[in-house]
């Protein structure tokens, strides 16, 4: 079955690759209109998924993430209309020129071809990813969380109806409509048809893909993020940024998990940190040097262990460690981080430069919250995923990350000497 | 053992990443000087490798590829000096600007970190790849063909001596000095330390890497390249390009393997093709429609089969197939090609555009030999490998392909709203 889907996707990708931006936008607008007009079908499928999930004892928080309603569907349709307004990277001339060998060469941006996306039980992702792939002329095979397979299936059929209205094949957007996990393993081996695989989920999914996929994979989304409070940091400003980075959305991968504090300011800074964290309901996990200083304060505090330093809390928990200097902070980040987002709070320009140069993360911040790592915040207009690997794309991935290039060479019956 | 090498490489990569271009060039010049001054050590190691290979019955052609002599070593040293003259992509500002959220953002080009390269018994690759990696601030782990392990080992030690002279760690360039194949499997799993893996070898090596590596891999180097002779092609010009594409270096991956000829010119073109191919010593493998036309001519001709169409001849053999039109040619290329290099010979501007838009290969040519697909010919100054996948880099990979970027964001105690 997946072999057939791969074949259909590849065939569709050739048709999509030569569409004009205007043609692609027309398809997107039709999808948005269908989402408005046929919301009842999707909500009915979602109700069945929700009933199953409730019966299986899913938590209220997860049920809420899974649930659609007319307002949320409206928001999804509006997001598709927003994708129309983004500029289309396909066809851009990256570079080129006349070569000494007589060729006129150009490097032209083209779609990747077929993209595979594996994601969790967020029903909005189906439309979101499909619209970004269509905008960039890619076919896509989607495999959402098994808890939302009916919702995703209904959404996929709606998108395919819109495609057919424009004379485009259903193979352009295909949803794997089955909760069977074995299909994921099959998808990972479709390298003959699929050009890029994006897993959007937890560490286990990324590990599975890295180990089993024969398709090039973009891994990411795991964030053990750090803030280093330098000797020259200002106390109040530092507290403001720390609270934002931890609390603005604790479950996000770009929220901070570990605070590294210069030893020269520890005695002064840690007691006020405890006070502020207590007010904000943030629990601290302290190393041997910070524990005595934090223990006196009002914040809840526990002893941190080595495993905690590598853990994404994704909750109102924060590790605290005292470091001897900026280099010890950098070493800690290299050894425990996930190369996602790391920040320095400082008033010293040379320390800022040193940190920026030496910390090898996708996003490095000076005097800013780690929470900014996001396609929208970085001005990309959209976000397909956040990559923490170094090949192809790094950090927030916008439309450009869904493209590659080809070399086009124009000769005059040219031969190599 | 490989775990230790990975650790050393990662540690070295941090030191390399902050070197200036001038510092990196100094190291390269020292390596070139050592290659001149200490050539005896390398030639002695090479003589032992050669003796073993001869005893194991290696062919003269392969022995010649393996052999070093003072002139060849001189050439290798000169190539290193040439790398000094290339411009250094590290530190480039790719894009950036002031964002509405208050951040000043930049996307800065940085080294990948640690690169792993697996290659065949070409002793020049060791120095070649090491110098390109050093120029871009990357550490590298090299695993050459098992037939050249002594030569590569001696070369690696020479490079490490040059590194140490500049206060740099030996971990920056490490050669796996053992013919044991199990070490390759270990290297493929070093994802904790190695950021990119480049296999340079045959299809089996690429398949092994795609299936077993947990490190992002660049696959490529397999070229089933096509030339489509359009209805409007000029006979003599076409023959000139075909001969060049097949014969200028038949063993190269960018040499042509299959000729697709428009049916309307077949009766006119194929007899002269036979004549010219006979003169050039090129043997033809003909489909059912071209066979009768070629059979009359002087060139050797056999019947082609489906497997031949997917085969890299790498010899003076050429498949010939008659197609009904340009779209049938494009379909054949999509189904049988390796997305390496494909050309159209035509005088029709619309057919040229159609071919360029629809053929999804790394390099697409109009009226030029496929033999141009090469980092040097494309003006990149160097070539690390030729990628036929779509992620990260496509076609000839120059220095830029050995880099990634990081997002750097400068705030003013900025928090996300």
List keywords for this structure.
7-stranded parallel sheet; alpha/beta; homodimer; 417 residues; 21% strand; 4-stranded parallel sheet; 16 strands; 15 helices
Short description:
Chain A has about 425 residues and is an alpha/beta fold.
Note down, in words, how this protein is organized:
The structure is a homodimer of 417-residue chains. With 417 residues, the first copy, chain A, is α/β, with parallel strands linked by helices. Chain A is 43% helix and 21% strand. In chain A, the strands form 4 sheets. A 7-stranded parallel β-sheet of chain A has the order 10-9-11-8-7-12-13, with helices on both faces. Chain A has a 4-stranded parallel β-sheet with strand order 5-4-3-6. In chain A, helix 2 (21-37) runs antiparallel to helix 5 and helix 5 runs parallel beside helix 6 (124-135). In chain A, 53% of the residues are buried. The mean pLDDT of chain A is 95. The interface between A and B is large, with 69 and 69 residues. Strand 16 (403-414) of chain A pairs parallel with strand 13 (363-368) of chain B.
Query: Which pair of protein chains has the largest interface, and what are the residue counts?
Result: A-B, 69 and 69 residues
Derived structural class of chain A: alpha/beta
Shape of chain A: globular
Q: What assembly state would you assign to the polypeptide chains in this entry?
A: homodimer
Strand segment count of chain A: 16
Poorly predicted runs of 5 or more residues of chain A: none
**Rg result of chain A:** 24 Å
Q: What amount of the residues of chain A lies in strands?
A: 15-25%
Q: Mean pLDDT score of chain A, rounded?
A: 95
Outline the biggest β-sheet of chain A: 7 strands, parallel
- Strand sequence of the main sheet of chain A, in spatial order? 10-9-11-8-7-12-13
Intertermini distance of chain A: 49 Å
Annotation field: number of helices of chain A? 15
Instruction: Work out the helicity level of chain A.
Output: 40-55%
